[in-house]
Amino acid sequence: MTAARAANSATVFYKTSWSTANIHYGIGGTWTTVPGIAMDTACTGWKKKTVDLATATTFQVTFNNNSGTWDNNHGNNYTLGTGTTIVKDGVATANATDPCQGTNPQNTATVYYSTTWSTANIHYGIGGTWTTVPGIAMDTACTGWKKKTVDLATATTFQVTFNNNSGTWDNNHGNNYTLGTGTTTVKNGVVSAGASDPCGAEPPPDTTPPTVPTGLAATASGTNVTLTWTASTDKVGVTGYEISRAKGDETPVVRSTSGTTYKDSGLDPQTSYTYKVRALDAAGNKSAYTGAVSVKTGDGPPPASPGTPLGGDPRKDSIYFVMTARFYDGDTSNDRGGSQNIRSGNATNNDPMFRGDFKGLVDKLDYIKALGFSAIWITPVVLNRSDYDYHGYHGWDFYRVDTRLETPGNTYQDLINKAHAKGLKIYQDVVYNHSSRWGAKGLFVPPVYGIRDEQWKWLYSKKVPGQEYDPMVEHQGDDPDMTAAQNEMAKGRPYNGDLWSTEEPAGNTCKNWGTPTQWFSPEGYTIYNCQWPSPTSGMFPAKYYHQCWIGNWEGEDSRSCWLHDDLADFNTENAEVQKYLIDAYNRYIDMGVDGFRIDTAIHIPRVTWNRRFLPAIYDRVKEKFGEEKAKNFYVFGEVAAFVNDKWNRGSVNHSAQFYTWKERKEYSADDEKAAIEQYNYEEQLGTGNQPTSTNARLNGNDYHAPDHSKFSGMNIIDMRMHMNFSDAQNAFNNGKDSDDSTNDATYNTVYVDSHDYGPNKSSNRYAGGTDAWAENMSLMWTFRGIPTLYYGSEIEFQKGKQIDCGPTCPLATTGRAYYGDKIEGSVNASDFGVVSSASGPVATTLSQPLVKHLQRLNQIRRSIPALQMGQYSTEGVTGQMAYKRRYTSGSTDSFVLVTVSSGATFTGIPNGKYVDAVTGDVKTVTDQTLSIAASGKGNVRAYVLDQAGSPAPGKVGADGPYLK
User: How do beta strands 382-384 and 169-170 pair?
Assistant: First the structure.
């Protein structure tokens, strides 16, 4: 340890009648940020603050009341020194005694925090009152230690967290640190009260390992093994355990845990495994391993049979959108933090990026059904490969399901089958536009330059013949050939020896192989040519991948260039690429999924969709399951347009509704040429010459058979409504404005926010308030389109939080936070939107007002066909958000009058008896006019025409916080 440096401090008492006082000071010319730091109340009439001066002996001081009134010693500032100083009536008295002595006790705490951060803040709370995020900067006490003295007033304990001022936090795994008065050190999560100054004399190093764990026992159940042992002891403290698992002659696999139990899942059936356990302490000492215990697994669960799509009109459903890895952790043994686990701050929160899994979804199917949803949209399932790929959009092997999502008995096929058994559809998120930066296994994987020198050996796995990438096997940071720092950087990285080569490989096309560039990594290491994939390096052949960066997001290059450096852009106009993707996704069709949500659809030309991919989907479903299932296989594309225009900046090619139409002329046989021809042709025709449709609109009061003869096969996410859902009225007005240019807007997917953006391209989850959420839901569930909800919005989960910040901040602080804590416990749904029993935290979640609102909206929508599949009209309707809807098919003739949040009048409607599905109120119309009174944000009236063949359902469900 570096020799300690003298650390001076000054305690300042300031006499004032202000209720709030800040001290604004400068040390060596460096000042605090205006208006300074809040002072504590020392006693009546006096404020107090202790300041760390480091090596300084004097400093400049001013005071203010946080409302613009300053005391700066008549423009001269106060010059104060070390020790105790009182400032009263413009006079500074050095070496003073405490003016509050004998009045009330004033406690202080000096906190030393061990960290490698160059900057550290202490964020603390005293009696429930916390400092403003991110807290107060700590001073450097000596190498490896930060320090701050905190005035506690009369308190004797306080809550503390730390952060690096750049989004990385240490909050003691979500529990905060509880510290007391005096000197305390916090190191590697261990709090030592009554400690000595760690920057004083060098303490003797801790070289004593923990005791060896005892009582190791292993029990097998199927392909799972549960280990238990008795805790070790250590003179400072045991920080965790390493479990070594061996199978035959294979290299042992090492896993870590903080407790004294461990469940090892997903093992081979009827196979013997040997386990040993050892303890670790904060100094890095490791005990000897226990004696080995052996156990043999039992039979694995039988493989699931391929499923069959549930079928039926997709408009009958409402959709719940989950990020599988962030929803519910059914099996902790497949949790993986990856190489960014520590950097992101996820490790501090004990929140690995891959946390949820298919078992978690299976376990919570009844929760989703209890909300009233009948379809689940899940993030991509293909095997991903990147440093931060929990979301699923960095596909690498499109023919395999990601191993971090599956466990025996809860494979992807099991999820599909078990969801179907409960009447729930599975919509799989699919990516045709890009792979991971490392290419696509089975199509093209770019060789990259790598060298295991002292700078880079942590990044590159030792090559092992025959070994392949497996994200379930992460580097444990225990390579004896690497330094502690290198092992720390390597920890969490899966094997990548299949990707890199120091020698230039045969047939290499990357320019300047392995030559140093002018660039350096964040660690200061030399970056070499061909070390990182990019489109312009020549590393990717044009046959398989596009070779440019997007310059104009509304230009043609947005469809044929890379979006980002970790999204290698497929040349989707190439026949081999098309076959690779079509064959891959046919596998999931064959498993019985019910539809595809298509990611980044706008970045592939419409003509390519219409010629190749959409017909391939339809043909495969028809081949496997028949014409009716193919017709109802729901395909909805993300055609992202983040403007409020009907046509995205006047470009038809970049507008969502454009993708719902077939081509209207022949283009060149070559797909690449055809894409340019189509782009130019449609762009020149412009917005005024695009096809129009009345498929979503009533003809007066009458439903008419929709004309889908020009339908492309792709439905769309309603980006226009999404962009305007900061206000339901705007979403309604903007949504209907685009419907005449959409083939059939009754099939639009409608949502408020998602895993990417909130309304108006906000980077935060929607925070408009509970009433506004209720109103948005009321509109979505009664207007045209298929209502969709992003997980957790039913309780405004993470409202206002940044949706995504990559690995620069913990996932727990984002809109992609782990949801499982809210749905722990048991729940049984006897029907859609009906809870038969619930206990634990999930019962609390299900009791929330928006949940009750959502459940009833789902019940009402399911009971009125016009609300599911009906066309609509506002003709003869006065009201802010009011419309009539009708659906006629066979013996069904469903007609409903809807108004949201306020009253409305409907004229020219059929005479007859109307019954409100919300209140049960009955009104008889004899003059073709019905006036409906309604009030309350989010309240709804849905008067259904009661007919002999299509009777009104009457009042549906019980009154709730909004529908009443």
Answer: unpaired
